[in-house]
UniProtKB/TrEMBL annotation:
This is (2E,6E)-farnesyl diphosphate synthase. PROSITE patterns: POLYPRENYL_SYNTHASE_1. Signal peptide: none annotated. Keywords: Isoprene biosynthesis, Magnesium, Metal-binding, Transferase. It comes from Kwoniella dendrophila CBS 6074.
Length: 492
């Protein structure tokens, strides 16, 4: 099924637009208020999906900052029907802050900078919903991972027996290193083997509410394992690391309507903080205990780099004419930069749920991967279409040709190029001459480029829905189906 969907997708971009579609100009001339409503629909969809998840149990051992954050959110929304969502996101964010603690104040501040902004948290939400929709389908594999979870002390347990720099001391989790003298490594003296019997156990960890079992109060809804919850945090860390790097590469001054990290802290600290996020994500990945999951998420990081290099090549060495190869390169870049993380983290989530340990649940891994891949590509195609709409702070980017100003020819421009050759010279010179961006938007406006982009996104979205409908009925599955609809409705 996956191969058939992929083959269909590769050829669908050349399909003509049917005569009963709405005029493209009506999409381009949408008012800012209309765009706000479109984004609100998408936000409502992700909020609705969040509400499927049951809240985590409270823990007296949580760090004071995490408890304060969670308590504040719940206290302000006791009468709010979305209070479950608020507590869930509050605990996700506090868990992320814990994982990024550093004794270096500058690094600590920049690494946490983008996590302070309110976002849709689509990627961790996807991981959690996939987990809840598939846990139990692995048969004996599910029984095995449940037993392992019960026998495990903490998701933060170090794989090394010594503390300090050897296993990357995190003050938010391990406490102040200076209060545990037996774990401090002094670098003014050579390293020597510790005396037998002298070593003391590591101090107790500060537990996180978010990383405990997510027990369900609903019938026939399985728990979400701590490893799956930690995976949700890891996916957001990798995503934010890519944003830090992208904003340096693109010289972006804004991110989600606020000053970007490079404009606030400088390029060097932004790059180093992105690297720090990837380092902490790698440590957390190793502690999940699955080599297959480590491999999947490690390849995501490689994919992000490959996609960025492909994008750089597309702007420095663009195709001379509209070709299938040029469009396939664009679609491949879209997968590498956007959909890969969603696809592979969804697959990793079901692996942590025991699917694939036996042949009984092997098929679920492909369903999860295909859903994440198709949804991710649909999401990015719609994002590319939104770049031709009036600006809206909720989009997370300035729009009005923001991609064009970076020299990027996305799907609407590539489709328009097929009927309007005058788009070619603009692409070749990366839209860098005065009036090029405005002319390119005008050409797209009179072409069917936006229409075809949206139709292609619908094709990928419907393919994602077909895959997720193979899973047993559940509220989590319905929430995942809802996301496939709302991702398209952002441009209605």
């Amino acid at each position: 099924m996956l191969s058939r969907s992929t083959r269909s997708a590769s050829s669908s971009f050349t399909r003509s637009v049917t005569t009963n579609r709405k005029p493209t100009t009506s999409i381009i001339r949408s008012s800012p208020s209309t765009t706000t409503k479109q984004q609100s629909a998408w936000a409502t969809a992700t909020e609705s999906a969040h509400s499927i998840l049951t809240p985590p149990p409270s823990s007296s051992s949580s760090s004071s900052s995490a408890s304060a954050s969670s308590s504040s959110l719940i206290a302000t929304s006791l009468d709010d029907p979305l209070s479950v969502i608020n507590s869930e996101i509050g605990n996700l964010k506090s868990s992320l802050f814990r994982m990024l603690g550093s004794s270096n104040s500058s690094l600590d501040k920049v690494a946490k900078y983008y996590f302070q902004a309110e976002g849709k948290h689509l990627r961790p939400l996807l991981v959690l919903l996939i987990a809840q929709a598939t846990n139990g389908l692995g048969g004996k594999g599910w029984e095995k991972v449940q037993l392992e979870s019960r026998n495990r002390n903490s998701i933060d347990d170090s794989l090394t027996s010594q503390g300090g720099v050897l296993n990357d001391w995190n003050p938010e989790v391990n406490g102040d290193e200076n209060t545990s003298n037996q774990h401090i490594q002094t670098f003014s003296n050579p390293f020597k083997l510790p005396e037998i019997g002298v070593q003391k156990p590591l101090p107790p960890l500060n537990q996180s509410e978010f990383d405990l079992n997510l027990d369900s109060t609903q019938e026939n809804v399985p728990i979400i394992l701590p490893t799956q919850r930690r995976l949700a945090s890891i996916t957001e860390m990798i995503h934010v690391a890519s944003l830090l790097h992208d904003d340096v590469i693109d010289n972006s001054n804004l991110r989600r309507g606020e000053p970007s990290a490079p404009s606030t802290f400088g390029n060097k600290l932004s790059i180093l903080s992105g690297d720090f996020l990837l380092g902490r994500a790698s440590v957390a990945l190793a502690r999940l205990g699955s080599s297959e999951v480590v491999e999947l998420l490690a390849t995501v990081i490689a994919n992000l780099v490959e996609g960025e290099v492909m994008q750089l090549k597309a702007t420095s060495e663009p195709e001379k004419n509209p070709t299938k190869k040029g469009f396939e390169d664009y679609m491949r870049k879209t997968y590498l930069k956007t959909a890969s993380l969603m696809a592979k983290s969804a697959r990793a989530s079901v692996i942590l749920g025991g699917c694939g340990i036996t042949k009984e649940g092997e098929w679920v891994k492909d369903v999860a991967y295909g859903y994440g891949r198709n949804l991710g590509i649909a999401f990015q195609l719609i994002d590319d279409a939104l770049d031709f709409l009036p600006p809206d702070p909720s989009l997370g980017k300035p729009s009005l040709g923001a991609d064009l100003r970076l020299g990027l020819a996305t799907a609407p421009a590539l489709f328009a190029w097929e009927k309007y050759p005058e788009m070619g010279p603009l692409i070749l010179r990366k839209f860098d001459q005065p009036g090029d961006v405005e002319l390119a938007r005008e050409i797209v406006g009179k072409s069917d480029g936006l229409q075809r982009t949206i139709e292609l996104a619908k094709f990928f979205s419907s393919s994602a829905r077909e895959l997720i409908e193979l899973l047993p009925e559940s509220k989590a599955r319905e929430a995942l189906i809802g996301l496939t609809k709302k991702v398209i409705e952002r441009v209605k």
